[in-house]
Design goal:
alpha+beta, 5-stranded antiparallel β-sheet, disordered N terminus
């Protein structure tokens, strides 16, 4: 049986809007810290992917924000809040490929319109709330999932 994240852990990571040069630092630190807890690989992978997507959405779209992460029992909770333009139509924004990223973000290889759908796919629970001209809050909860042998072999590099 895989170990579960029973140790408590909580931290907040401030994110600078437009800070492309800092992009990935928060999710990298989350990966480092969660790796110390001996989590199942599939759980760690999903949390880090979703955290990176949330971090990048703040960098691309907001003035500033933060990603907060907490671990308690077998659940990992990630909350990404920003101060930015908000999302006028959340349902439309959830469609794969939908993006309002700036030309600058796109020229750097970001803004393909996959962030929200990747977050939703990775999370076991996913909620998004947004207010135009105020900002957006994404809440995600992750729990260990059964891993099939093929996925496990790919994670191990075999």
């Amino acid at each position: 049986m895989e170990p579960t994240p029973t140790d408590r852990f909580a931290n907040r990571y401030p994110i600078l809007g437009g800070g492309f040069f800092l992009a990935g630092r928060a999710s990298g630190e989350v990966k480092r810290r969660l790796s110390e807890l001996s989590l199942p690989k599939e759980l760690l992978r999903r949390v880090v992917i979703a955290t990176y997507e949330a971090e990048m959405n703040i960098v691309i779209h907001a003035v500033s924000g933060e990603v907060a992460i907490s671990v308690e029992g077998d659940a990992i909770r990630v909350v990404a809040k920003d101060r930015g333009p908000g999302i006028a139509d959340v349902q439309e924004a959830m469609k794969l490929g939908f993006s309002t990223a700036s030309e600058k973000a796109r020229s750097l290889g970001f803004g393909a319109g996959m962030g929200l759908t990747n977050m939703q796919r990775c999370a076991d629970e996913f909620r998004i709330a947004s207010e135009v001209d105020r900002g957006t809050c994404v809440e995600m909860t992750f729990r260990p999932r059964p891993v099939d042998s093929k996925e496990e072999q790919q994670d191990d590099g075999n």
